[in-house]
Amino acid sequence: MSTLLRLALACWLLVFASPAIAREATVAVASSLQFAFPELVERFRAQGGPPVRVNYGASGNFRRQIAQGAPFELFLSADEQSVLALHEAGFTEDAGAIYAVGRLAWIQRPGRRPLPDGEAPFAAVEAAIATHRAGKGRPRVALANPEHAPYGIAARQALQRAGLWEGSAPLRVMGENVSQAARFALADEARGGLVAYSLALAPALADQADHVLVPESWHAPLRQRMALMPGAGDAARALYEWLQGEEAGRILARFGFQPPGAADGH
């Protein structure tokens, strides 16, 4: 093949292949959105939006991956800190935007034991600790790993406020992310667990779990921020803008997320 022909072929590939690549957004999404985000993408696509390639995981893990060069164009975190830290280090286009405020909930399998009420949402944790100390078993308490999951951090803060962090140490089982923690919470050997309210409301889990909300004042606000990466394509930018609109807000509200200003009393 001549040099001229090779050059012509390369130009043809650039002209015809690049738009196809640009039409897909590559997104890193916190596990608290695992059930809400498919509906968001479905509505976005139904209105003419381009395809979206989604990766779910713990926000702290995504933060490290993006800092190491992972090719995500848009990052939806379950906290603010992960995005702001990336921005300060030059890995995001700007500081992004808060798209929702999450809530923490206690979940447990239905019908096995009385569900705690909102006044004492950790009664089940207290009972599990008492059972273990009496030598009558080791009922597990599930939460996401606070080392890289914002909902795990909130769970730790709430348990510390209740004076139950140290006592629950032998009982705790950590999920890699909050979605995995929800699965652990509903296992046979578990008493329950602390997870995102959005997961408790998801149709896939609603019939398998009872839940009670943890008071917002028991942990730092779960402000969930998103940001674009430098060089993000048009598809990711369109999705980023759409997620800040009214329809996206209504879908998020059905999954228990509050609007961006909720944690500030707005």
Automatic annotation (TrEMBL):
Molybdate binds at residues 32, 59, 178. Residues 1-22 form the signal peptide. This is Molybdate transport system substrate-binding protein. GO terms for biological process: molybdate ion transport. One of its GO terms (molecular function) is metal ion binding. It comes from the Bacteria. It holds the Pfam family SBP_bac_11. Keywords: Metal-binding, Molybdenum, Signal. Belongs to the bacterial solute-binding protein ModA family.
